[in-house]
Amino acid sequence: MSSETIPLAGPTSAAGQRGRRLRGQLARFITYVALCVLSTLFILPFLWALTASFKTNADIYRFPPSLLPQPVHAENYSLAVSVLPFWQFALNSAIISLSCVLGQLLTGSVVAYSFARLRWPGREFWFIVLLGTMMLPPQVTMISTFVGWTQLRTLTGVEWVDTFKPLIIPSFLGGSGVLIFLMRQFFKTLPLELEDAARIDGCTTWTTFWRVMLPLSRPVLATVAVLSFIAHWHDFLGPLIYLNSVDKYTLQMGLRMFQDINASRMNLLMAASMIVLLPVLILFFSAQRYFVRGIVLSGIKG
Amino acid sequence: MAIDAVKIIPRKGGRKAQWWRDARDGYLFALPWLLGFFIFTLGPMLISIAMSFSQWDGITPISRIQWVGLQNYQQLLTDDARFAKALGNTVWYVCWAVPFGTLNALGLALLLNQEVKGQAVFRTLFYLPSVVSGVATSMMWMWLYNPSFGPVNFALAKLGVPQSQLPGWLTDPKWAMTAFIFMSLWGVGNSMLIYLAGLQGVPTHLYEAADLDGASAWVRLRNVTLPLLTPTILFNLIMGIIGSFQTFTQAFIMTSGGPKDATLFFVLYLYQKAFQQFKMGYASAMAWILFIIIMALTLTLMRTSQRWVYYEGERG
What's the burial of B1, exposed, middle or buried (CB within 10 Å: 0-12/13-18/19+)? Predict the structure, then answer.
């Protein structure tokens, strides 16, 4: 599934009358104008924030607003990262997100393979349960899970809350139901003959999975990695609930803290926001086809 | 699949051994998720039900828990004006954001599905906002909605709205929720992509047939595209409702529920009760009310879907 060109599903034969062709051209022109206007509206908030991040604060609070910063104040960025331990926050975010990606890939793929290909009694039942968990609002389990981690201290004598563990461990136990489902859909498209051949060659279930199936699944693993990374990078409620000490804060929480401290310095706030967005933007533009594949794979088509 | 499993059962010893091996491997492979399900879903669900019948701060030892029966639910439904406000706000938000989000996403997908140059570029631009949502974009929007210096009001003023009638957006109880609804329309990229995938699934021969019959673009849309897209619409409506009911981060960052509780969303109130006032039992009861509302809406939608959703046979 290439994401670059989407097959056209519009009218194909414009070979009819001339009037029709003219009308078609007019329609295309209107479509084009609409697309340009709308996409400008969609991208404008980013551009506005970007220009604000290079302005002086006095320049920002001016009406009517100026479009471009003059002169460009790039030092806003170095100031923004020096106000708070930004690199520490970035490191924390990276540790949490990347650990979650690792757990999701390792355990999620194994589970997905089991649902896609292995034959075990109760599989259909558990698969329906898996689909059911996708509909469950997380708030239903959020509070009691938090209480569980709090109470775990009295059992183990070790602190669990205010560590990364509650944020990471769920990803090592299958992780997101949606992503498991996505990988299962992919495994189901691979030809059965591969596994049969592997079995005949004496592979166990594990070696079949690890040596034959996984190497063929790089595209879907990349998709899952990207989606999982974005979800955890953006997660705010999770860290907000579990992390208390500032040196463990994620970027999202750091940004929130920044807002509390520097509410009036909008230019720095925008610069900080841009820095937080940057890794996601880079990931988005370099891995866009993996996002699109995720949607195609989930098989939600007409 | 179930039939396959039955066929393989016994007859010969070798087959039986194979059946056991398959079952063992299957469960072993699914084990991480099974464990996760019991530890992080089923267990917490059961505990959460129990907690919703109690008064507890979640910190003191479990022995100090007070069982209060249905009192939490009773208080929420009859004696908590802020809860009523939060529920009303959220329902209002869902009622606007979901239908208009659907129209917006569908409209964009239909536009993108035309034969235009640079389609990939447009798609990227529409999709981008839904990927980068979070704290940073919430801050961007606070700035955009700034009543005196923000570009939104600047544009409105340019369009001829008198200075005195410019909305205060996030600072005005009358306008704050509208600001959130507008903002939600900006993040429809994900469902737009799902619609686009759905549009690609419409077989071209149907359009050709419609063309031969001399159908206009409107008739084609009304009688070919939309009916075939109804399963996708149903899916997006359900996901939209579930997602919109859980609105939290934007409200937490941009307004903290204000002004005058005008943007006090359900989950924001739940968070305040659980993690700021440590009324874990009360908040658990709220979570279950949320669950019941979402389930009821989803089931109702699915019920009605038999009347308006066109199924070819495949289900997502």
Answer: exposed
Nearest to B111 among A34, A108, A113 (CB): A34
A6:B113 CB<8 A: yes
- Within a domain: A8: no
Q: What is the pLDDT of residues B90-101, one digit of tens each?
A: 999 999 999 999
If contacts are CB pairs under 8 Å, which of residues 51-110 in chain A contact chain B? 52, 60-65, 107-108, 110
Please tell me which residue of chain A has the smallest CA distance to B140.
A49
Contact flag B253-A256 (C-beta cutoff 8 Å): yes
Residue A235 lies in a domain: yes
* Chain B residues near residue A38 by CB distance under 8 angstroms: 108, 111, 126
The CATH superfamily of B71-308 is: MetI-like (1.10.3720.10)
Q: CATH 1.10.3720.10: which residues of chain B?
A: 71-308
Total number of residues shown for chain A: 302
Instruction: Give me the interface pTM, i.e. the ipTM.
Output: 0.85
State which residues form the domain around A211: 84-297
Q: pTM for the full model?
A: 0.88
Question: Is A2 an interface residue toward B (CB < 8 Å)?
Answer: no
Last residue of a domain, one of A77, A96, A111: A77
Q: What angle do CA B1, B2, B7 make, to 5 degrees?
A: 95
- Would you say residue A10 lies in a domain? no
